[in-house]
Task: inverse folding
């Protein structure tokens, strides 16, 4: 099976130029996503999910961030790829839909004019007719009328603008699409419609997807793999059917306990006590230990290694042993 993206000991650290203070936003990420996969990355706000997406596309200022480890995207090492080569990949092979992406469109230009400018970055000789025909197909995929092409952003609803953003990200048929909280600001009906449309597009365009969210139901409904992220570290990675049904890491169990059940309406919700740690402070032991009800002495003094369970799930916890 073709590997689209593979991270090995991938880390992203923010640096304060004034006092040399470092914030370890992503630490030692290791995972692989294959062609056709849909990987959901979940975790609390501030866990480093969006930072990882921005860093993969090298959209963070090199003056304020350090990136180490390996991020191999279909044979290209993203961490060291020259900017000119990266520009050929960015949006064409690797695209992203940002949080609140509806705010990214210029309010004083028609949707079509903005799409034409974006399309011609990689196809400078494209005619207006060529661009329109391409966009017409994509608009149909995301359930938009082609009349939207001639409208201004303020003439569209939030859900329609989000659909435009998704269509824009697909304009060059990327091999990997990253959706960063792309449906969070939408009502549940519109969110469900867009998720259905995204799944249809994956099959039509043979696309691979990473979906960043804090909503477990989105992952359960639209992904085949899930990665649980906490304070910059991946705690558990595996198939959705295994991780959500048989969670192994205490943090995964905590997230699921805090999520309402659709089958047991009387089930009591249990919040995870405490707060995310200060990622600029030196950490000893397991980063989740201060909030973990199962924490042992070793958890406070030794950082756990990532191990693989017999079902293939990757877990970073002292309670889990290789092959269990």
Result:
């Amino acid at each position: 099976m073709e590997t689209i993206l593979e991270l090995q000991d991938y880390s992203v650290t923010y640096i304060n130029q004034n006092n040399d203070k470092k914030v370890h936003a992503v630490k030692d990420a290791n995972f692989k996503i294959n062609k056709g996969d849909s990987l959901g990355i979940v975790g609390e706000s501030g866990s480093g999910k969006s930072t990882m997406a921005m860093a993969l596309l090298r959209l963070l200022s090199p003056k304020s961030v350090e990136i180490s480890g390996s991020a191999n995207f279909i044979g290209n090492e993203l961490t060291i790829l020259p900017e000119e080569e990266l520009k050929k990949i960015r949006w064409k092979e690797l695209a992203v839909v940002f949080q609140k992406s509806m705010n990214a469109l210029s309010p004083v230009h028609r949707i079509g004019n903005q799409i034409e400018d974006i399309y011609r970055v990689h196809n400078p000789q494209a005619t207006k007719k060529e661009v329109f025909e391409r966009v017409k197909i994509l608009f149909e995929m995301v359930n938009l009328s082609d009349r939207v092409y001639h409208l201004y952003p303020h003439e569209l609803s939030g859900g329609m603008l989000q659909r435009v953003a998704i269509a824009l990200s697909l304009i060059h048929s990327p091999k990997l699409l990253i959706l960063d909280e792309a449906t969070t600001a939408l009502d549940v009906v519109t969110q469900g419609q867009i998720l259905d449309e995204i799944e249809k597009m994956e099959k039509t365009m043979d696309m691979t997807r990473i979906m960043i969210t804090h909503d477990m139901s989105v992952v359960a409904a639209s992904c085949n793999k899930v990665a649980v992220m906490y304070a910059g570290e991946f705690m558990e990675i595996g198939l959705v059917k295994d991780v959500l049904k048989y969670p192994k890491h205490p943090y995964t169990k905590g997230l699921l306990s805090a999520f309402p059940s659709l089958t047991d309406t009387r089930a009591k919700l249990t919040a995870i006590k405490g707060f995310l740690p200060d990622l600029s402070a030196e950490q000893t032991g397991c980063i989740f230990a201060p909030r973990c009800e199962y924490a042992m002495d070793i958890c406070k003094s030794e950082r756990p290694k990532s191990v693989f369970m017999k079902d293939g799930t990757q877990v970073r916890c002292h309670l889990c042993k290789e092959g269990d």
